[in-house]
Amino acid sequence: MQETERKYDVPSSSDTSWLPPLDRVEGITSVVDRSLEELDAVYYDTDDLRLYGSSAILRRRTGGSDAGWHLKLPLPGDSREEVQAALTDALPDALRDLALSRTRGAELIPVVRIRSSREVRELVDAEGAVLAELSIDAVRAESLRAQGRSTAWREMEVELAKDADPALLDAVEKRLREHGIARAQSSSKLARALDEMAPVPAGERDEAADLAEGSAGEQVLAYVREQIRVLTALDPAVRRDRPDSVHRMRVACRRLRSCLRSYRSVLDREVTDAIRGDLKWLAGELGAERDQEVLMKRLTRGVKALPKELVLGPVSARLQAWNVARGS
Q1: Which sequence spans correspond to the domains of the chain?
Q2: pLDDT digits (tens, 9 = 90+) for 171-224
Q3: CATH architecture of 2-197
Q4: Among residues 108, 165, 273, 309, which one has the fewest Cβ atoms lying within 10 Å of its Cβ?
């Protein structure tokens, strides 16, 4: 599922008199209170916070209507893609695999526990359809890596309902700003918890810091990093067979491999030649999948173009079964 939301800083008091009447926002005719929810989430990451560093979040949450495992992957703007799995004691292998391009095989461990008492209000239109959900959270966070470290705050989220107009978020935010309610500085509860309880590890040394500004090495490294970011982001999509993801990842492999070959004079070939070999292998694997995609599209299109009297039996179903069998 895709979630689109914005977070806001709110007063620490439990009194909500600061919240302006949102039924005056265009499109919203009423605000409906719902029951209080108690949420308890444990966030997982590598010891050096590789998921957090790539704007991804993995948690196991109880309470609320969507208890279970949640892997959140970044999308442009205010949106994120959320992949959910059933509530189990152990991390599901499917989610572990989807996080692999970011964790690079490092162990995933509990890093933060966040408990929230959530007041939920629904923003409803004239026909009774829910346009967005407004949540006011009293948050308590504790570090699971540094004993005794904890923090607490209050925040508000406005999450757009499925298929609702994204312009609604701008209209709601305008009304909130008029009453002194500003957007939160932190992108997530995890980000704020880590910021307030412990500094994020510096990670590996930035090699680009040693390069002269505007030099060929700086420019090449910037391009290499962008292609690595693309590969990392596309990996979960390829594993779930998302449309066009195989083709786009194959293009990124080709671009990165070409860059490593073309700029050998400013790169360490003892390192990059081995990477080029790996990229060649990956592109070959993706090429086989891409060929299957193209062939399936052509066969499907060809069947649809035939006169109905020439298509005997469950041809489309057989094509789908053949495609699945080839893919496995």
Answers
A1: 2-197, 213-327
A2: 999 999 999 999 999 989 999 999 998 765 544 445 555 677 778 888 999 999
A3: Beta Barrel (2.40)
A4: 309
